[in-house]
Amino acid sequence: MKNTLLGTISKSDFERDGYVIIPDLLTMDEADLLRKVARADRDIAANRSSRADGEGGAVELVVRNDLPEDSIYGAIVRAQPLVEVMEHLLGDEVYHYHHKMILKEPRTGGAWTWHQDYGYWYNNGCLFPDMASCMIAVDQATKENGCLQVIRGSHKMGRVDHVKRGDQTGADQERIDAALQQLELVNVELPPGSAVVFHGNTLHRSDQNNSENPRWAFICCYNTKHNNPWKESKHPRYSPLERWSPDRIAETGAQQLSRLHQPD
Length: 264
Known about the structure:
The protein is of the alpha+beta class and 264 residues long. The protein is 27% helix and 27% strand. It is built from 8 helices and 13 strands. A 7-stranded antiparallel β-sheet has the order 1-11-6-13-4-3-2. The protein has a 4-stranded antiparallel β-sheet with strand order 5-12-7-10, covered by helices on one side. It has a two-stranded antiparallel ribbon with strand order 8-9.
């Protein structure tokens, strides 16, 4: 990760479209290290949860609220350049809300229904949608293996009612259909290490992975300090986020990979 990203990120694009792409957020070596750690991570293997998509498939994911200091995940979330970008786009100090790994395996990875993240987080006591996620491609993300799709500008619609579909909760389909008559659907195809930052109200989904290639993605979710939840929920309230040099991504990741390869 570069020591600064602010000169390459357009806040006006984010405010207009509800998302912004960051090419090569991680270097090739950092992206490769993240992929190796994730594939070897016994915690991911043991704690996968599955969400049926109502279409015969299921998405697997691992969600974490804690932020260990000895993991590459924590080093990425804390990386000063990324934190600065999130604060630039959201206009306030941010903190770690949670992070997760999405696991779409070849031929079996399910779809995500249309939804807004704030459609979920609203119920966690967050008064405002002043929240965002950074999704980093662990594997190549393509239309064939179920890459993220967004509706450009849909964050301006405000929060949409969400209902249950299978094991997932999705946005009201009638409103989605109306939005797609006026707004552009964008397939966010990304090489490993590139990322997309999207607003908490941006409508997004993904197709099933019907390809021979995996599509894993690491998602860092941030909330703003002024949006500190007014009630307890499964995700944390505000606490200051320590900022780390991006150099610690490679250092921490290499140490973690070495530990993972040690016999129990």
